[in-house]
Amino acid sequence: MNKREDILNRAQALSKLIRSRLTFETGDLKQAVEKTTSEGFFNPDDVGFALNHIRHQLDENQTEDWVNRVLSGRPIPEQKETVLCLHAGNLPLVGFQDVVAVLLSGHNYCGKISRKDPYLLPSLLEDVQENDAFGDIRYSTELDDLTGITADRVMFSGSTKSEVQVRERLLESGMAGDRTRYLMRTAHSSAAWISAEALHQPENLPELLAEASFRYQGKGCRTLTSIFTDGNPEMLLKLIR
């Protein structure tokens, strides 16, 4: 089996594994949802929205299409690396895509789970951790619990203010070294581009814009704060009023 086939098989296995956990929201996932909402981390509607979004993302065909697009024309790393993910907690399950990316790549996942969202992601990682196909998996809400690893790569989502502090903390603890590579994401909001053609076929456009602006109380890094168009701005204003 070549590397490409190995990644595709891993994608199918991961998709099937997590979809089976998400199907009925029973057992550990149900408890995680109940704790998340009862302890006031997120409201039930937002948690349900996040879970439904993941169900849609993990459609088997979509997962394979994503892998094929990523691998197209790119070399596949031969050496397995340790990837440390420092997950944000401003949205429920906001770090899920990072987990999927690391697991599909075949690298070892090590995750610092946000104390602002301590139950949902671990409830999905438990089954994955028991599957040998996904390598060495470690995670905790406490960074000190992950000492002993030296990350080859670090994926971080947060503010520009905390970026320097994160680098210093990882270097001091030995979790990162001089050769560690970083992927830092510090976005605070998103923008929408609406073409002139779309303005003439609005359909559910007002509802979609409202959803993008106010979901998660408008606190997400994907929250819509700016709208651009090459069409008639007056027509856009009528749609969103």
Tell me about this structure.
The chain is of the alpha/beta class and 241 residues long. Helices cover 47% and strands 17% of the residues. It is built from ten helices and seven strands. The strands form two sheets. The chain has a five-stranded parallel β-sheet with strand order 3-2-1-4-5, sandwiched between helices. Helix 7 links the parallel strand 4 and strand 5. Helix 1 runs antiparallel to helix 4 and helix 1 runs antiparallel to helix 5. The radius of gyration is 20 Å and the shape is globular.
Given the C-alpha coordinates, what overall shape results?
globular
Strand-residue fraction? Answer: 15-25%
Strand line-up across the major sheet:
3-2-1-4-5
Q: Supply Rg.
A: 20 Å
The secondary-structure class comes to: alpha/beta
Helix content class:
40-55%
N/C terminus separation: 56 Å
Biggest sheet character: 5 strands, parallel
- In round numbers, the mean pLDDT is 84
Low-confidence stretches: none
The helix count comes to 10
Per DSSP E runs of 2 or more residues, the count of β-strands stands at 7
- Following the backbone from N to C, one meets helices and strands in this order, namely HHHHEHEHEEHEEHHEH
Helix and strand layout, with pairings?
Layout: H1 3-22, H2 27-38, H3 44-57, H4 60-71, E1 82-86, H5 96-105, E2 108-112, H6 120-129, E3 137-140, E4 151-157, H7 160-173, E5 176-185, E6 190-194, H8 196-199, H9 205-214, E7 224-229, H10 233-240
Please summarize what this structure is.
This protein has 241 residues and is an alpha/beta fold.
